[in-house]
Amino acid sequence: MLYKLEVENFFSIRDPQVLDLTVDGKVPDPEGRYAPIFEGADVRAPKVVALYGANASGKTTVLRALEFVATMIRDSVARTVPGFAGIERFNDVESAYRPIRFAIELGGIMNLTPEVFQRAMSGEKVEQGTYRYELEIELKEGLAVRIGSEALRQKPNGQGKWQRVYERNAEGKVKDSKTFSLSGFQHLVKTLAGNHTVLSSFAKFQHPTAQLLVDTARKAFFQIEPVHSFVDRDVIDYLKNQPNVVSRLRDELSRIDVGVEGMRFQHTDNGPLLLFKHAGLAVEMPWLMESHGTRAFIKMFPFIMSALDMGGIAAIDEMDAAIHPNMLPELVRWFYAASGRNKFNAQLWLSSHSASLLDDLNKEEIVICEKDRQGRSHLYSLMDVKVRRDENHYRKYLSGAYGGVPHLG
């Protein structure tokens, strides 16, 4: 369970921002909205994290930061040209020479090896705790040039000091540990590219612990910013090869009452065509004639289901776009234990302008993003401000009491 995010000098985030989502064990939770940060922990984190704020306040930037870290962990070794994709520093003179920094903290199995992992998968109790992953990108004249430092540390049982799993400096030198041994992999250190992470590089060459950690990063699914029509073909091609997902999607479309009774694929010279059977209509409707809301739901459905099935993270930008206000809380509730869908404590990170959803959220699930007059984004959980548990979040937010609303005039 991801419970902390730190970001500095990334897009509209200039100064270090720390989002701590830990929830005290005494907070009541009848619906199962929170999960232990690791198995057996008293401290919990919310399964749903909803980002609110005015336009351009930094909501998308928070999701981009998560996506960048996950992409660097799992895919950076595939980059064959210098530099980085999906990264920009804050646009002022001083920030052109300051590093871009990220850190995440999450729970998991300690001293991770394939043997320990197999024991855990067979139901044997193994030691749990917290991990901290840090990534720093060096800048030169405003351009990201290389990884300045990278580290993975663990804290067994979430107590005591952080223990090194591995550390890497700007010269590419790597310090290992018993958990992350370099034995048999020293040659990879010598060829480690300045824009490839240790985890991504070592996993490619079958380092056992790196592979397990990269597999964890592959359980994070991102739909950042509105998904436009140019990716519709990718969605249709994916669904064509996933009959189980299509079956579940068909059931949900019927249940949420959008008028769709069925869907099927028809082969054409231009690839598969997705057709929808509607109640009362004699002819099936093609994809492009479906409502924007139905298509938006279908596009996000694989991300949500994949996270729920794997116990991962689904991060969806502007989740309320084209989704009916009554339908949005239902999708959020899928992640609560009371729904019976979230057996592996998956997390949903979403950005939204739908203030009505706030009435369905606890303060631990709400994050406010604000931008000051210098263009700098700031973020904080409602846990960081004085908010009563029985407060009307909808009214308070729209009144400006929490911040994160546009100022008109």
UniProtKB/TrEMBL annotation:
Domain ATPase AAA-type core residues, every copy: 48-359
One family name in Pfam for this protein: AAA_21
Superkingdom of the organism of origin: Bacteria
InterPro entries: ATPase_AAA_core (IPR003959), P-loop_NTPase (IPR027417)
PANTHER family from the UniProt entry: ATPASE AAA-TYPE CORE DOMAIN-CONTAINING PROTEIN, ATPASE-LIKE PROTEIN
Protein's name according to its UniProt entry: ATPase AAA-type core domain-containing protein
Origin species: Rhizobium ruizarguesonis
